C-alpha cells in the first residue's frame, strides 16, 4: 500500500506570515486578536477579529514575496494567502524546481469555506452604483474557491489532480484527507493540500454575527474573546489566513532524501444530519469521524498523544469534548487536547489545514500548544488536559485533528511520527 | 511625453505591475507587457474612467500597443 507523508509546510496566520513565526508566537501564548482594522466597524455587532497583519508588523505577512503584483490586484485575500502558503510549502519540501515528469504527478487540493466574499461584496456595490459595464473582468476567477489550486498549478506548472474542497470549516482537513487518498490511489506522487479563508469584510462579519456565531460581548477585550472550554465563552472570533502542506508518497520522499515531518495515517468523515449551523447535541457525527480516522490509522485511541480540537469557543465545545471522551476515555487516555483557535481565531476553511500543521509541529518539537483564556473551565472538563494558558512539553508521537463545519460536516485526521 | 501618454503609462504600470521604462508607446500589451485579453478589458475600463471617454468593443479590439491607446484617447476625449 502506498503511504503518504508530509514533507513541506506553509502558513499565513494572524500570528505570522510563515510557519516558524506563527508557531513561535503560538507556543509563546500570544493572541492574534485585535480590533478590526480592515474596515470601519461602525454599526457592526462584532468589531474584533484575528487579522493577518501587514508586512510592517512585527509578525506580519508580505504578499510581495510570492504573489505577483498583477495577481494581487485581481484576486481576493484568501487566494493570496493560499498561493503564498503553497509556495512556502514547496520551498520547504525542496520542490520548487521539479522536473517535468514530476510536474505531471504533482497536484493541488487547496480549498476554502466561503471564498471571495470581500470581492463579491465590493463588485455588487459597484454593479449597483455604476452598472454592469464597470464590473471587473477578473471578478469571477478572482473569487472562485478552486482558484488557489488553479493559480498555484499555473505558477509552478503542476499538472496532477486539480481539486478544491468546499466543506465550510472542515475544508482544510477534508482537503488534506482527500489529497492523501489521491496519492494512495496513485493519481499523484505529490499533492499540495490545505485551505484558506479571508472573510474579514463587512458582509462576512455581519453575516456570522447575525447567525449568532461570533463573540459579541468582548469587543473591548479582543485577546480574551476566544476562550474555548471556558465558562465565559460566547462565540468564536473570526480569523483568516492559510495552511498548505506538501503530501508525498513515502517511497518517493525517501528516495529523494526529503525531510519527513509525519505520516498521514487516518482520515475520517461523517455528517451530523441534524441542523445547518448547530452540531447534533449527542455529538454522534464527531464521534463517528474520530473513530473512523483511528480505525483507518490502525491505532488504538490510547496511542494518540495530542488532539487539536475543533473547539471554536462556542457551546459546541461541550459536545465535542463529550464525543472525545467516549472515544478516548474520560481522561482522554492521557492525551492533551487544546484549541489553538484561542490564539488565532477561527480560520474557517483554513482551520483544518493550519491546525494540522500545528499538530505536525507538535510532533516535531515535542510540545503542545496551549488553550488561551481557559480561566474557568466548564463543567465536564475535569480530569482532561486542555493545556490551559501555556504550552506543554510532552511526548507526542501520534495526533488527531478535528474539524467540523456548518451543514453538519465532520472530518478528522490522524498523523504520526515516521519511525 | 504628452499628458495623455503620461497618464496612460501610469495606468498600465499600476495594472500590469511592469516597470515604467518598459511601457513605451511602441510596446504591445500582449507581446511586450505580458497582458492577456482580460487585462486589456480591464485596462480599457481604466482608460475610460481616467479620461471620461467611451471605448466601444470594436475600437478596443484594435488597441494593441500603448501608442494605440494614447492615440485613441487623444482623438476622442472631450
Explain the layout of strands and helices:
The complex is a heterodimer of chains A (419) and B (78).
Chain A: E1 4-12, H1 19-27, E2 34-35, E3 48-49, H2 69-74, H3 77-93, H4 100-104, E4 106-112, H5 117-130, H6 147-156, E5 162-163, H7 171-184, E6 190-197, H8 202-210, E7 241-249, H9 250-255, E8 262-271, H10 284-297, E9 306-308, H11 316-328, E10 336-338, H12 341-344, H13 351-365, E11 367-368, E12 392-393, E13 398-405, E14 409-416
Parallel strand pairs in A: 4-5, 4-6, 9-10, 9-13
Antiparallel strand pairs in A: 1-7, 1-8, 2-3, 6-7, 8-14, 11-12, 13-14
Helix pairs in contact in A: 3-6, 7-13, 10-11
Chain B: H1 3-16, H2 37-51, H3 57-60, H4 66-76
Helix pairs in contact in B: 1-2, 1-4
InterPro entries (chain B): ACP (IPR003231), ACP-like_sf (IPR036736), PP-bd_ACP (IPR009081), Ppantetheine_attach_site (IPR006162)
Organism (chain B): Altererythrobacter epoxidivorans
Function (chain B): Carrier of the growing fatty acid chain in fatty acid biosynthesis.
Amino acid at each position: 500500500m502506498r503511504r503518504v507523508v508530509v514533507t513541506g509546510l506553509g502558513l499565513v496566520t494572524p500570528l505570522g506570515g510563515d510557519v516558524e513565526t506563527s508557531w513561535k508566537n503560538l507556543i509563546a501564548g500570544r493572541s492574534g486578536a485585535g480590533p478590526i482594522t480592515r474596515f470601519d466597524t461602525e454599526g457592526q455587532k462584532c468589531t474584533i477579529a484575528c487579522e493577518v497583519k501587514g508586512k510592517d508588523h512585527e509578525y506580519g505577512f508580505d504578499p510581495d514575496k510570492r504573489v505577483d503584483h498583477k495577481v494581487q490586484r485581481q484576486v481576493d485575500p484568501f487566494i493570496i494567502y493560499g498561493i503564498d502558503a503553497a509556495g512556502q510549502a514547496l520551498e520547504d519540501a525542496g520542490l520548487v524546481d521539479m522536473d517535468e515528469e514530476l510536474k505531471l504527478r504533482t497536484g493541488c487540493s487547496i480549498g476554502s469555506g466561503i471564498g471571495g466574499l470581500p470581492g463579491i461584496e465590493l463588485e455588487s456595490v459597484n454593479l449597483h452604483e455604476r452598472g454592469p459595464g464597470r464590473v471587473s473582468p477578473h471578478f469571477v476567477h478572482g473569487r472562485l474557491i478552486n482558484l488557489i489550486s488553479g493559480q498555484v498549478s499555473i505558477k509552478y506548472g503542476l499538472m496532477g489532480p486539480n481539486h478544491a474542497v468546499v466543506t465550510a470549516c472542515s475544508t482544510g482537513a477534508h482537503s488534506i484527507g482527500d489529497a492523501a487518498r489521491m496519492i494512495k490511489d496513485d493519481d499523484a506522487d505529490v499533492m499540495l493540500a490545505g485551505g484558506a479563508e479571508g472573510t474579514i469584510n463587512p458582509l462576512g462579519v455581519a453575516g456570522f454575527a447575525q447567525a449568532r456565531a461570533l463573540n459579541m460581548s468582548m469587543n473591548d477585550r479582543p485577546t480574551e474573546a476566544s476562550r474555548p472550554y471556558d465558562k465565559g465563552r460566547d462565540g468564536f472570533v473570526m480569523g483568516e489566513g492559510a495552511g498548505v502542506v506538501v503530501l508525498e508518497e513515502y517511497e518517493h520522499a525517501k528516495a529523494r532524501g526529503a525531510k519527513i515531518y509525519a505520516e498521514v495515517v487516518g482520515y475520517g468523515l461523517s455528517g451530523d444530519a441534524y441542523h445547518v449551523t448547530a452540531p447534533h447535541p449527542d455529538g454522534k457525527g464527531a464521534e463517528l469521524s474520530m473513530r473512523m480516522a483511528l480505525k483507518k490509522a490502525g491505532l488504538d485511541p490510547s496511542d494518540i498523544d495530542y488532539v487539536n480540537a475543533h473547539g471554536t469557543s462556542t457551546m459546541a465545545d461541550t459536545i465535542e469534548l463529550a464525543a472525545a471522551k467516549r472515544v478516548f476515555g474520560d481522561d482522554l487516555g492521557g492525551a492533551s487536547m487544546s484549541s489553538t483557535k484561542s490564539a488565532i481565531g477561527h480560520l474557517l476553511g483554513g482551520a483544518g489545514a493550519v491546525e494540522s500543521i500545528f499538530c505536525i509541529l507538535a510532533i516535531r518539537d515535542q510540545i503542545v500548544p496551549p488553550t488561551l483564556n481557559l480561566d474557568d473551565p466548564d463543567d465536564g472538563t475535569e480530569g482532561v488536559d486542555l493545556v490551559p494558558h501555556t504550552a506543554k512539553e510532552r511526548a507526542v508521537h501520534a495526533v488527531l485533528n478535528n474539524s467540523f463545519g456548518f451543514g453538519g460536516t465532520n472530518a478528522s485526521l490522524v498523523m504520526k511520527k515516521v519511525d | 511625453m504628452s499628458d495623455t501618454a503620461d497618464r496612460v503609462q501610469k495606468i498600465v504600470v499600476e495594472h500590469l505591475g511592469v516597470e515604467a521604462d518598459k511601457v513605451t508607446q511602441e510596446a504591445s500589451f500582449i507581446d511586450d507587457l505580458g497582458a492577456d485579453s482580460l487585462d486589456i478589458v480591464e485596462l480599457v475600463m481604466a482608460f475610460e474612467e481616467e479620461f471620461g471617454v467611451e471605448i466601444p468593443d470594436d475600437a478596443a479590439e484594435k488597441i494593441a500597443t500603448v501608442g494605440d491607446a494614447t492615440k485613441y484617447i487623444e482623438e476622442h476625449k472631450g
